[in-house]
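## Example pair
The file below holds two records. Each record gives the amino-acid sequence first, followed by its structure token line.
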Amino acid sequence: MTRREAREQAFILIFEKSFNSEAGIDEILDLAKELELIDNDEFLESLVHKTCEMQQEIDEHISSNARGWKINRIAKVPLAIIRLALAEILYFEDVPAGVSINEAVELAKKYANPEDASFINGLLGTVARSL
């Protein structure tokens, strides 16, 4: 599996988690594997776990850099993409920030509105420059 495919599957799981907050991420991961909706992939699982584990810190980065936007006003699809990309930017040193941003924009083009891709690009770029 390519990292792009792993990111897409990770996005779907993070998005699912936003609707099923009572379920643990391991429960969601196990069910997805059992139903053969995702592949076994170390990068995918690391990315999902880190995104969920560090969500509060990630959300603080979003809140402090999304000027004029409160986190609860950001739609679930772009928010899941942003959280995933920020987890990668903040906690995966082997992945350049530019790659994470580009991959997030590509996910947004596929799953979100056209305006969301621009918003995501701007927000992630702002966070990356502030680090």
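Second record, same layout:
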Amino acid sequence: MRAVITLLVIIFLPWSSGYAATDTETKPSHASRLKAGEGMTLVAAQCGVCHSLALVTQNRADRRGWTALIRWMQAKHGLWPLGEFEAPILDYLAKHYAPSPAGRRQPLGMELLPKPQEGD
């Protein structure tokens, strides 16, 4: 029996290794959804355990807002104490996902809008 298991491992191990390498080459990592910077892998590791990192990237807050969001997740959703990781996580989030002055572009000027057609 041991010989059969060894034989199966020898046969399938190279195949599974090659498959895994191909799989990681074609699929982006979760961390790649985050903006590059110090603390990115820490945020990916701590936040990506419970939810998609898209949930991080779609939000904007200052350090105070991110802290409040962490406290809410701790109180309502069982987020563990972040301890020594909290400060670098907050540094990263406040730097890369801070509020932006305008979420959308400014409206076009009237001179750039199409002219109304007769009957509109």
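Notes on the second record: The radius of gyration is 24 Å. The chain is about 50% helix and 0% strand.
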